[in-house]
Amino acid sequence: MYIAQLTDTHIRPKGHVAYGLVDTAAFLARAVDFIARSALPIDAVIVTGDLTDFGTAEEYAHFLELIAPLAVPVLPLPGNHDERAAMALALAHMAPFGQTQGDDLSYAADLGPLRLIMLDATVPGAPHGAVLPVHLAWLEGVLASAPDRPALLALHHPPFLTGIRHMDVQNCQGASELEALLMRWPNVLAVVCGHVHRSVHTSLAGRGASIAPSPAHAVTLDLAPHAPPSFHLEPPGFHLHCWQATEGGPHGRLVTHLVPIGAFPGPHPFFDASGRPVE
Ligand SMILES: [Fe+2]
Ligand SMILES: [Fe+2]
Fold it and tell me: How far is the CA of 34 from the centre of ligand 1 (A)?
């Protein structure tokens, strides 16, 4: 099972760029074209928040137009730049939004033997996220309904620190409660996030936790305590999560690849036609 994770596409209305210079639509178009033409056996695409820059109907319509060439299911989750009501209206056909007792858009979806749990822990009007009791209760129920099914938990804000200070102050609150819950559910193989616009890896509750890069702009990797918020136009990319049923433990193993988006020289063979290493 192969799941591509796009995140932080920050789409604006047609003809508008983000932050005065980032043509986010062109970047997403390139990412979509790359995935659509790729020989990689991608089963689904998850988009972990900040689909749009300001959460307007016009931006969601533009986002939908840009992802149209994708032939696989696309499962979206809101980020702090999104607006729940506008997103739920525009993308209602893509996901069964709103399964908790709260007013968030969280939902779970099964992809073959794998359960994708899309947790909307955004806080309306705020840059940070927060895992609330209503989320934990729902998560517990989703996991209890299929305790043996391997699961992937996606949320926009990372429930861990990255060392990039201006992003860390707007990460996901309630991380220790989430971690305590995960300790009881070993079938959750990994926690995958967005928001920081960089490929970042750590562990949470003893399993993999990662942040995928954006197919557009990257948050500057500056670990100085008072580094001003800024971005760089680094090579764009996405994460490819590969679930291997027969590897690892009873729930399989999740392996994540960082995939740079672009046309690069190659493939160049390591061996010639007679099997000798190319010198
Ligand atoms: Fe973002
Ligand atoms: Fe964000």
Answer: 21
Q: How do beta strands 218-219 and 231-232 pair?
A: antiparallel
Of all ligands present, the nearest one to the C-alpha of 157 is: 2
Output the CA 10–ligand 1 centroid distance in Å.
Answer: 7
Ligand at shortest distance from the CA of 212 = 1
Could you read off the pLDDT of 219-268 as tens digits, one per residue?
A: 999 999 999 999 999 999 999 999 999 888 899 999 999 999 999 999 99
Buried b / exposed e over 50-85, threshold 16 CB at 10 Å, is bbbbbbbebbbebbbebbeebebebbbbbbbbbbbe
CA 145 to CA 25: how far, in whole Å? 39
Distance CA 42, CA 166 (A): 34
Give 225's contacts (C-beta < 8 A, 6+ positions apart): 165
Domain boundaries along the sequence of the chain: 2-260
CATH architecture of the domain formed by 2-260: 4-Layer Sandwich (3.60)
